[in-house]
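Researcher: Here's my situation. A collaborator sent me these components and asked whether they could plausibly form a single complex. I don't have experimental data yet, so a predicted model of the whole assembly would be a useful starting point for our discussion.
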Amino acid sequence: MDNEQARSILSLHRRMDEGNGDPRFREAEKVAERDRELAQWWAEEKDVDDAISAQLTNMPVPAGLKQRILSQTPPSTAPNKWLRPVLLAAACLVALAVLFGSWRSRSHPPMSLAEYRSQMVNFIDGYPPLALETKDLSQLTAFLARADAPRPSEIPKKLRELEPIGCRTLQFHGENVALICFRRENGTTAHLFIMKSAGLGHLSSRDTPAYAPSGKWMTAAWGEDGKAYLVLVEGDLAQIKNIVKTS
Amino acid sequence: MRPASSYCREGWRHLAPQARVFNGSVVRKSLRYAEVARLNTAQLVEEFYMPLYRFGLSLTRKESDAGDLTQQTFYRWQTKGHQLRDAAKVKTWLFTTLYREFLAKKRHDQHFVDVEDDSVFVEPEHISPSFVDTLDAAIVQEALLELHDRYRAPVTLFYMQQHSYREIAEILEIPIGTVMSRISRGKAELRKSLSDLAANEARKIVSIEKVRAHG
């Protein structure tokens, strides 16, 4: 590790990060031990960071905020006493049913398209941030490749014509899922999820996707080249059909 | 210099998992589901409302919105906090919830921007600690709020000195590498902004003195 690399690593470490076991940091620290100028620079960096921290943590907080928070009364979430044994019994039954089901159908896929669709919709409803934001689709697919996430073999023509916004990865049942977002002409976003299709059971073909509404979303799903594709748009069946159509 | 934020870390100790010594090293015993229920909301408010408000202010740039976000975060805690399995994750849960509330309130397409930084390290402008000490806290706050959206949240969490990189990545739901890249660029931008703001302040003082001298 040269002086410049050590500098870049040290500049990102605060006093609280010292001793966190990061081997690259340990190595950079050793370089600083041998280089007095670097050691001096790093000591000043930490002092500057501490000085900025001290200033920021003195930002005033409105008087009365604490009281305002403490005075809000949330709806009670505690179940009634009589309900507790009923819920417990129901939970036991569900657990037994799950155990029985998994024993009966070990060869069956552990996940379903419906569950996948529902989880991806929930995920989008949480306004997740993107890991890479660019209008360049090739950069997005390169990022997904680096992140070991499935890349689309072929994106529907209409979707490809939209302006890309960004991408990220997430996990579903331990599988990497890629998400690419596109801006539609009406300003809303179209979301394309790609994951390996193994485990999702039989999927519709590219020519006849499975359409299903989910909350405010209309979804289309199909399988191609061992990958499962799921598209989410805000709109009706005609709109999503227009986006995913093959010709 | 002792960072002012350390009071929160010390305050956190009574909520932290019990420690026990195992083979000569301190091992944290995870608090589990039942112990989450025992966490006292009033204690959590006492410990976290100020850092949460400051994080909220850095995101929204508006005091009223930051207050609302902080209040909403604790409301979520009271209604959904029982779903948390590990009490040691309360701090991260609260900050993640505040950040999600912020994103949810923001129009969806507003948090998308067009460029992404690839380079991890950007050499920050050199300024001395004594220079920062001489700055008015309002100037430092102004410089932070002027940061580009993508850098403001990670840089604020970095300077709050309450979260490890892993926790910052969890809160913002982005990879650690991206966190480090954004902090590096954000720090450089903050330092430059501090220098510029301080230079402006100095120019104002010189102008006033000149006016006085001529007056």
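Model: Some features of this prediction you could bring to your collaborator: Residues 105-109 of chain A have pLDDT under 50 and may be disordered. Chain A touches chain B through 53 residues (CB under 8 Å).
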